[in-house]
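# nightly structure sweep
# worker-07 picked up a monomer target from the shared queue
# config: single-sequence mode, recycle default, output format = structure tokens
# input follows
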Amino acid sequence: MSQVVLKSSSPLLSILASSKDRVKIRITSSKSFQKNTTAAVLFMMVAACLAFYVPSVEIAWITTILLLTIYLFAFEIVEIDVAAITILVLLGLSSWLAPVMGLEHGLVTPDKLFDGFSSNAVMSIIAVMIIGAGLDKTGIMGKVASSILNIGGTSEKRVIPIVSGAVAIISSFMQNVGATALFLPVVYRISQRSGLPMSRLLMPMGFCAILGGTVTMVGSSPLILLNDLILASNSTLPAEQQMQTWSLFSTTPIGLALVAAGIIYFLIAGRFVLPASKKSDDTGRKGNTMQYFNNVYGVDYKMHEVVVPTQSFLIGKTLSAIEDQYAIRVIATQLPGRDTKVGPGAMHCQTVISAGMVLAIVSEENGLTAFVETYRLKVRDKLQTFAEDLSAGKAGFAEVVLPPGSSLIGNTSRDAGLRKTHGIAMLGLHRDGKTMHEDEDISHVELHSGDTLVVHTTWSSLMRLEKSADFVVITREYPREVERPHKLGFAALFFAISLSMVLFTDIRLSVALLTGAIGMILSGVLSMDEAYRSVSWKTVFLLAGLIPLGLAVEQTGTARWIADQTIMVVGEMPVWVIQFAIAMLATFFTLVMSNVGATVLLVPLAVNIALGIDANPAVFALTVAIATSNAFILPTHQVSALIIGPGGYRVSDFIRAGSFMTILFLVISIGMMNVIF
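# output follows
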């Protein structure tokens, strides 16, 4: 009786639970609205106060727009790319509304408004994304990912130092955004195979790429520019005050200390500051797919890697002799010292088991346990030999239907040689509303029209089945990437050409990188459609929308006014305090304008301040050039903009992780400069 009451009351319970959830959502939305409204009022009050304090109408409007930008980013009122384009539109409207706003002309001239879309930074990012996709298409990035996993395993605390350290080293000799784009596919593959969320890996990698740019004088644009700015300042200084230029490795101790601090920071504080809930797409897809097959067909298979020892009784037996008895399916093999065998033509039911052979087996837990114990086999904790071939991006579970007219009808799966001919291992057979499993000897069941086969296969094999008249492929959402390992030579050639142009010529970065990108397209490494798909357009619009704001901050005199106000506050303090203030100022400017623009603006100012307080002007200039890499709080740096989409980050994630990183950067960089110089 109690069961009847429980069942009859379950709809009511569901309604009450649903109502409770709706109330929670309303309360949460109400609190969020109140918080955003309160913040908006505070930002408007600050803007109003500044309007009476700043020296010109132009600066008043720019500070207001700056505050609006920070508000939109910090509270995520809209998507960050939408926020950036909104700011772009407001700057454009200022030309039309200039008389109403009390301006003689717009805050940005119309001919400069869309310069961001053709800027060196944006075109460089587009190019490096295409180059990274081209290298990934050859399969080389998968091999790099496998090497990292072999060394670091699937432990976050081991993978993060390896990936972040490697990117930092590369970033010290090439543009950090290029190094990041190069490793994006590697991190994607690692996430696929280890189950670690992309959000736990990309931010440490991106931050260390930025930090790596401080290791040498060619690691970032501000450091490359610094010696030219020093020489320009020397032209106006007397001989006794002139500065020496910096050598290639002058910043190496500082940069290495920053990189080490960044890695240690994420190892210690990563679990607190990195988002934990954002799983990689493939990890989620793998779990959801198995859940689907479990719900629909009642199957719950797992993949295992088994090694056959020399004393095992399994040696000499064929696959057909063991699979049906233990309800397992062998989907890949490898003999010692040989290549892995996966897919069509790789194996068949008469394949003989040899000593030292590694088997990839799909089964339920019960069947595997009995099989392993009977034949004294060694089960590995995770896939090692087949980590690349059977990763979620290359293979998985699928369902196919036999249509009328299929040549397989009337044959058994064993007679048809599904595994040998088509590269599919049948795990379940669904017919007339009932699913037969491996333990029901399905390999000897005659196939009928309309049968649904639950199979494990490589995605490349599944793509071939889509073109076959013998099958109708039901599974549609799977990676359709086609690797082109035969194009590795072309990809390596054009990558090397592009990198050489960046390192050894003075050609614009965007032109050098686009040379490599177009070379990969013309040589067939990528198709044009694949190149378009490889670009994160969210990143492009984010940067292109903010570049005009940086231009307006500089041209209206807002940047110089902010700098002057800062120096007025700290002018009488100790040298290291003034140096720290200059670094903080450079940090702020690099969040709202280009790091090159901030460097050009602040280096002359820093040199003059140093001379006025009898400090080392070259060190103060270096302080600016290094501090303009301290861009972690907001995703306005090119590297941060590049990873925000793939990592599924929100602005609040950058604020949380970047705030302490910013303080750490300032303390270590200023401390190291005072110790060394």
